[in-house]
Amino acid sequence: MRTANLGGRLVLVRGGRALDVATASGGRYGPDPQAVFDDWAGFHAWARSADLGAAEPYEPEELGPPVPRPGQVFAIGVNYREHADESGYGADSSPVVFTKFRSCLTGPVAEVALRGDRCDWEVELVVVVGRPAVAVAARDAWSYVAGVTVGQDVSDRELQLGGERPQFSLGKSWPGFGPTGPVLVTPDELADPDDLALGCTLRGEVLQSSRTSRMIYGVPRLVEYLSGHCALAPVT
């Protein structure tokens, strides 16, 4: 299943066409992309049998963030071995965790106003928790995941690293500094959810290319770690 936020309304997406969920479900599920997490399991079951014959073409520019108001946003720093070595980070016993405030989120097609003279960006895997998770074991982690999408972590490095002590969250949370999308893809559509390709190109030039299997802490380990310290939830 692939869902998206089309002009603020929840849609199912297939082959460049979108089906409005509120209309197709006869009001069983409303138009708000965020509200569906109140019954994600039921929605997933309904969507598997939904008739996409009425799906219509859409413009990518109309897409918003697939999850516009997440209850929490956790980000993991220097989680690829190449990046850790490049940044001078040694092997660590725990992930580097920070946040991006949800007010920075935008859709996949957006103009991002850069701040400061040292803006940077990194392509990221975005993992969406679909139901409350507390003290989840790594072996069960994927069963708590509603889906994955792609994002860019845009950073104002001057603000982030300019003081005596680095601070992450403000320098990463200017409006537009969290592009995400275009769609949320459920794990059952992925051949191997622990080995996904991520990349970024600019005017045809490949600037980033890696796989999630190269992460120091994979998704199951991160869900276990984070849910062992606080309750994870898709909505608050």
UniProtKB/TrEMBL annotation:
* SUPFAM superfamilies assigned: FAH
For this protein, the record's Pfam families field holds: FAA_hydrolase
Residues of the Fumarylacetoacetase-like C-terminal domain: 73-234
What superkingdom does the record give? Bacteria
Gene Ontology biological-process entries: small molecule metabolic process
GO MF annotation list = hydrolase activity; metal ion binding
The answer to whether UniProt assigns keyword Transmembrane to this entry is no
Alphabetized InterPro entries for the sequence = FAH (IPR051121), Fumarylacetoacetase-like_C (IPR011234), Fumarylacetoacetase_C_sf (IPR036663)
Which keywords has UniProt assigned to this entry?
Hydrolase, Metal-binding
Q: Any keyword Hydrolase? A: yes
As for family, the record states:
Belongs to the FAH family.
Question: What name does UniProt use for this protein?
Answer: Fumarylacetoacetate hydrolase
> What organism is recorded for this protein?
Phytohabitans suffuscus
